[in-house]
Amino acid sequence: MAIFRVFIFLFLLFAGCAASSAHAQHIEQLFDETNTLDLSDSLFFLFETDYQLTISDVARRRNDFLLHPHNNPNFGFRNNGMWLLTSIANVSNERNWVFSINFSQLDSVDFYLVQDGKVLAQSHQGKAQKEQRFRVPTFRAELLNSRPVDLYVRIESRSSSLIAPLRIQAEPLHAVSYQIDSLLWGFFYGGLLILAIYNLVLFFGVKENSLLAYVGYIFAVILWQFVWGGHTHLVFSQGLPGWIIGHSELIFVIIGLSSGFFTITFLETKKNSPTAHPIIKLLMIGQGLIAFICFTDVMPSIWKNNLVYGLGLVAILSYIYAGFEAFFNKFKPARYFIVAWTMLASGAIVGMLSLVGVLPSNDFTTYCFQVGVFLEAGLFSFALMEKSRRQLESEVEQATNDLRNNVELIEEQNARLDIARKDAIKASNVKSQFLANMSHEIRTPLNAILGFSRELNNASLPSDQQEQVRIVNTAADNLLTIVNDILDFSKIEAGKLQINNQPFSPNKLLEEMVTIMAKSSHSKRIEFVFDLNPLPEKLIGDVFRIKQVLNNLLSNALKFTSSGTITLSVSGRSLSHGIHEFNITVEDTGIGISRHDRKKLFNAFSQVDDALNRNYQGTGLGLVISRELVRLMNGDLSLKSVLGQGSTFNVSLRMNQLSQKFSLSHSEAWAGKKVVIFDPVPTTRRSSAKILSGLGATVTSVESLAYLATLSEQYDFFMATVPVSKMTLRDTFLGQFVQFPAKKRILWYSGPEPFAQYPSLSQHFHSQIRMPMTLTKLDSLVHHQLKPVKNAIHEKIVSLPKANVLAVDDMEMNLKLIHTWLDHSPVNLTTTISGQDAVNQCQTQEFDLILMDVQMPGMDGLQATREIRKSPLNMGTPIVAVTAHAFKEEQERLLASGMDDYLPKPIEVEQLINLIKSWCINIEPGEIVFPSIDWQLALKRANQNQNTAKEMLDSFVDLLPETIELLTTLWALKDYNELKSEVHKLHGASCYTGLPRLQHLANETESALKLGQHERVQEHLPALIEEAKKVLKESKDER
Predict the structure, then answer these.
(1) What helix, strand, coil percent values describe the chain, rounded to 5?
(2) CA dist 774 to 503, 506, 684, Å?
(3) Cα(first)–Cα(last) distance of the chain, in Å?
(4) 3-class secondary structure for 233-277?
(5) Which residues pair with 903 in a beta bridge?
(6) Whole-number pLDDT of residue 35
(7) Domain ranges of the chain
């Protein structure tokens, strides 16, 4: 037993000696001061547990340290700190040495140099400490002799792995290494900053979003590297704030978001990488959520870091995938992008594997990501230059194509100058039933008044009766204008007024307004000035609404001006992208508007002064409607006014320019013509001279008779003006005009017609023309019409088709008006004054078109329509609602009730003609080959819901075998009533299932059954049954 105890004692003694010798064998000898000694493979370590150990604690527990099994100094993520131990003996001639840990993300690094149990030196460094003066923890120590010393290092980090690549250098060597390190980092930061500044300057020149995204990415990388590389210690001498230390992973998230935004903008992923685009956006959202998680500290540090780095790596892979997708979609700059991200991804993978301990921590794994970032930034810059070059080439190509298109457009417009513009859309929205009824009750009698009064305009009547007809026309037009203003205002309030943009001629529009307003202005002894500047021959806009705005502004100017002038000035300028700015100015010398009254000028149903209402009547809606119309046309309406001196309204509209040819331009007919203009009114004289000069004429302007008498040269044209404002001098002027030598004398006038006062003047003047001067009036002087002007409406009437038309209206005067229009046309017109009469008429006679009044006593138009649809002869006849309801909801209700079209009152004869032509001209169509199953039609019927479309089609097909058998049996039994019922069901169901050919055959068969045309039934029914079988077979094959 004693021998056994002796044996145990000797064994333990041997083991203790072995352990001691193990420590002793790892003393590093410092003998070469010219090389760096890596101490990572001679480290012993000790992990702290529940509490932090002091240097005294670990010195006593020296034997508890364990030898690090390999040379990778990565100890992973830990919540507590750990101690490292190594022993050194200086046998060199250098006394000053520097220990460093080449990893800057440790929160705390405490160095202790111990010899014989005594602490010789110590230093407390790391991100959270104040003593660190280099970018990585660095500890200077003086090693005097060859006696071994122990270096204890305590490290702690809650935001990164515990990585401690410990090395030692002689102080001179460390100084050189530090200078080289600083130089390389300066090159790194300087290169990135130069790239960022260059691309930022480039962004301000080309406005390319990807350049700005690139600059943001570069600055995010610089910020990240500034923190990750430890350079913050060089700026913040007191150490970083604790919150920043614990959330440094947020910078990596910022890099991920900025790189994602750069990827989206540079690759234009929505267009070039449609598959990767939603993935990248989803990953960016994920990174944003991770940023929130990191910000709120709801997860442990190790989880946060794994999430940040893991999702960042996935994001990089998605960017590479997006680059490949864009490259395969012919986006060539993506090749630089792919190489750049591949290099960065490789560096990121190496760096991340090093952080988690898979790869060793050394200079290569530490700096490979930085090298990748730098090279990536350079390649990104190359990619941006490539993209800018391609965009420049694309813009040059686009400019070339635009120039080619403009040339073609000019040629096309030269061939289309005589094409008439379409009428503007009619007011069609509703505000209330009261307005609808009011509209109906006023428009119904107006229909007859306007129709017959306009017909009387073409009749041969005495002059006094012609004047009376004109008064009736004017009064009716004014009443209609008031009704329209109220309806337009209600549409504007409801937000339902729409702009109908179509090609129009601005010069034609202006001349129409000038012709109307000039005569009214002259009747008040006010001069009307038309100041015209070059305008495109064709613009795209709502001519009806532009005319309405012009009419309101000019009517107001005429209403509030009692003397002086009214000036309409128009000009324009071409902008980029085919836009033309159309500017209209209406200026008057009327009563003006005070500053206070301007505030309520654009309020509904208001005028500038209630006291003026007695003198200037009106609804107070004109300017309100004009302002809203201009706003809807993306324009601007402004006002300048001085009380007692007049007002100036400016309208600016931006429209698409359809023609590059301008109306007021050099004309061969006027080039070189010598023209004398006599006009005592300076404003009208200047405007006339501007137009003639623009056409190429040589103009001499004359203001006085004295100067006119000095002109003895022979002139081509003498434009003599007798203004209404100089009526007292008219006789004097005319006496001098007849003596002036010129090939052609043209008498321009405002006020009464001179030829009517002095018939003999026609012997001395080529013609008399009302002011102001316009292009059309001047054109008539040099281009004589060879053919007599025909009545365009009459030609349209006689060209109508031979159609049977039924007109239904409870007011006989309206029916009489339609007779007046159509009695001399090929149309066979039948009229009735009630809905019941119309139904009776349709039972015995087939019509091609029915014009149905809606509001009638007894059976109204809707009831009559439903009854007519039941008649065998007219069940498919187009029925057009004729009503004075002017709102869109009412129109939609009528169309939904079974009517086919809509004709508003008061009826315009041209609208009626177009309506009859559109519904009654039978153009023989070619045979249309319908498919048996049209899936796109089925989707459309199901509102693009695939499941609903498939379900409806399958349900219909399931019923087909029974339907086919029943149709065959009923046809054999000649049971036409039941057969018609079954075909009707089949027809109705096929309308919603995408079976166009079956629907067509069912419709033809049903029509023949309703009309009792059994021969046609015999022709169509077999084809219908055969098509049903075909549908059945095709649907089964597709299943």
Answers:
(1) 55, 15, 30
(2) 21, 13, 12
(3) 94
(4) HHHCCCCCCHHHHHCCHHHHHHHHHHHHHHHHHHHCHHHHCCCHH
(5) 882
(6) 87
(7) 25-180, 247-393, 500-664, 674-782, 796-920, 935-1038
Question: And the tokens for 1004?
Answer: 């033809």
Tokens of 174: 């460390």
**pLDDT for 365:** 66
Handedness of CA 168, 174, 178, 184 (dihedral sign): negative
Q: Give the residue carrying structure tokens 């309806």.
A: 487
Domain covering 674-782: architecture: 3-Layer(aba) Sandwich (3.40)
Phi and psi torsions of 335, nearest 5°: -65, -40
Per residue in 404-447, pLDDT (tens digit) is 788 777 777 777 766 655 554 554 444 445 555 565 566 666 66
How many Cα atoms within 13 Å fall on the side-chain side of residue 763? 4
CATH topology of domain 935-1038: Four Helix Bundle (Hemerythrin (Met), subunit A) (1.20.120)
Reported residue count of the chain is: 1039
Contact present, 831 and 860 (Cβ < 8 Å): no
Q: What's the rounded Cα separation, in Å, for the pair 849 and 932?
A: 32
φ, ψ dihedrals at 471, nearest 5°: -65, -40
Q: Do residues 469 and 453 make contact, with C-beta atoms less than 8 angstroms apart?
A: yes
Cα 277 from Cα 268, distance rounded (Å): 9
**Helix/strand/coil (H, E, C) string of 292-325?**
HHHHHCCCCHHHHHHHHHHHHHHHHHHHHHHHHH
Residue 686 confidence (pLDDT) = 92
Residue among 87, 84, 229, 240 at smallest CA distance from 155: 84
Beta bridge partners of 113: 121, 151
| Cβ within 8 Å of residue 242, ≥6 positions away | 128
Quick check: 150 and 57 in contact, CB under 8 A? no
Q: What contacts 110, CB < 8 A, 6 or more positions away? A: 122, 123, 124, 125, 153, 154, 155
Q: Which tokens hold the place of 686?
A: 């200047």
Determine how many CB atoms are found less than 10 A away from the CB of residue 900.
16
The CATH number assigned to the domain with range 500-664 reads 3.30.565.10
Low-confidence residues of the chain: pLDDT under 70: 1-26, 236-248, 301-302, 345, 348, 351-368, 383-384, 388, 391, 417-482, 485-491, 493-496, 599-620, 784-792, 884-889, 922-930, 942, 1011, 1013, 1037-1039
Assign 516 to helix, strand or coil.
Answer: helix
CB neighbour list of residue 163: distance below 8 Å, 6 or more residues apart: 73, 74, 75, 103, 105, 106, 354, 355, 361
- 108-144 pLDDT, tens per residue? 899 999 988 888 889 888 877 777 788 889 999 888 8
Q: Which residues pair with 87 in a beta bridge?
A: 27, 150
Provide CB contacts within 8 A for 904, sequence distance 6+. 426, 443, 883, 884, 885, 886, 911
In terms of Cβ atoms closer than 10 Å to its own Cβ (0-12, 13-18, 19+), residue 145 is: exposed
Residue range 796-920 forms a domain whose CATH class is alpha beta
Amino acid at 526: I
Cα–Cα distance, 351 to 217 (Å, whole number): 20
Structure tokens belonging to residue 448: 């007859």
Do 674-782 and 796-920 come out as alike in CATH topology?
Answer: yes
CATH for the stretch 25-180? 2.60.40.2380
